[in-house]
Amino acid sequence: MEHTAPRSHRLVNEARRHGPAPTGVVYPCTGPSLAGALEAAEAGLIDPFLIGPEHRMREIAEQQGIDLHGCRLEKAATEHESAARAAELARDGRVGMLMKGSLHTDELMGILVSRSAGLRTDRRISHTFVMEIPVHDRLLLVTDAAINIAPDLEAKRHITQNAIDVAHAVGISNPHIAILSAVENSNPAIPSSMHAAELRDMARSGLITGGIVDGPLAFDNMISQEAAQLKGIDSPVSGATDIAVLPGLEAGNILYKSLVYISKATAGGVVMGAKIPVILTSRADSVHSRISSAAVARLVNYTARNPGHG
Predict the structure, then answer these.
(1) Residue 265 lies inside a defined structural domain of this protein
(2) Less Cβ around it within 10 Å: N or C end of the chain?
(3) Low pLDDT (below 70) residues in the chain
(4) Is residue 9 one of the residues assigned to a domain?
């Protein structure tokens, strides 16, 4: 049985209150990807533009018993053409969000970051999960567990700022951010610990804004104030962390999947750094995770368009 996730349900209800956002669903050419888009539409979160080969989408809909009534279909023959068409719809303002269908993530991200697409900003593209963990008393944002493999210091600054923007969108006005490493002190032999200290200093100098940043912190000192105190660590984010910034994709991916499969966490994720939010879905995602991802993206979309009214 799926965890009921009351805090993430609150996010879904809040996002629904803003009404559905026009959303380009890119190449939904499997049953789960097409059904996921329609589930988000039925939840009142997206107004879908289905982008892909029309005959294939209609064939899948018929096989799966999915009603495409009310959906707009945008014809594109291949994965690449579908991604390019999605970028065009976004650039022209016809859609305010994108949702990954069954194409490969690299195909969609490649279009998203290309200069010709017109969707780049001065930020690095990154992904943030908004996670609800049954044994934890607050939402935990985890970044980056999906896109940046081995980010350098500047990339981590962008990753951190993107995650802060997500936190603001989901109602965390002054997030506490832990920059994770394997140790609590700067050690030249552990690059992530050096990055963590530099990111902490960037926040103090105003190069990262909108939250309280500290690091380096090991996971136990992030999650438990008692563990931090036993080690003599006095950190404002210990035991009160809202955002965990991971050293790289491997650590992020392992932490995210451990929380989902062992701690029974639910997660909604969003790609930030482009002019519009992007929903990445996986074949293994639960229905609740798909809905949560659409809700997080809708809240980001609304907050970007209505500063001060998140």
Answers:
(1) yes
(2) N
(3) 1-8, 283-284, 308-310
(4) no
Residue with tokens 């002054």: 174
How far, in Å, CA of 47 to CA of 40, rounded?
A: 9
**What pLDDT score was predicted for residue 276?**
95
108 near 42, Cβ under 8 Å?
no
Which pLDDT tens digit goes with each residue over 108-140?
999 888 888 889 999 999 999 999 999 888 999
Domain-located, residue 285:
no
Is 264 inside a domain boundary? Answer: yes
Integer angstrom CA distances of residue 261 from 2, 4, 66, 91, 268:
11, 15, 29, 38, 15
Question: What pLDDT, on the 0 to 100 scale, is given for residue 310?
Answer: 52
Please name the residue that has the structure tokens 């050096």. 194
Looking at residue 12, its pLDDT comes to 92
Token digits of residue 203: 């926040």
pLDDT of residue 57: 95
CA distance 223 to 227: 8
DSSP codes, 249-307: HHHHHHHHHHHHHTS--EEEEEEESBSS-EE---TT--HHHHHHHHHHHHHHHHHHHST
- For tokens 């993430």, the residue is 8
Q: How many domains does the chain have?
A: 1
CATH for 225 = 3.40.718.10
Tokens at 122, concatenated: 């001065």
- In the prediction, which pLDDT does 295 show? 96
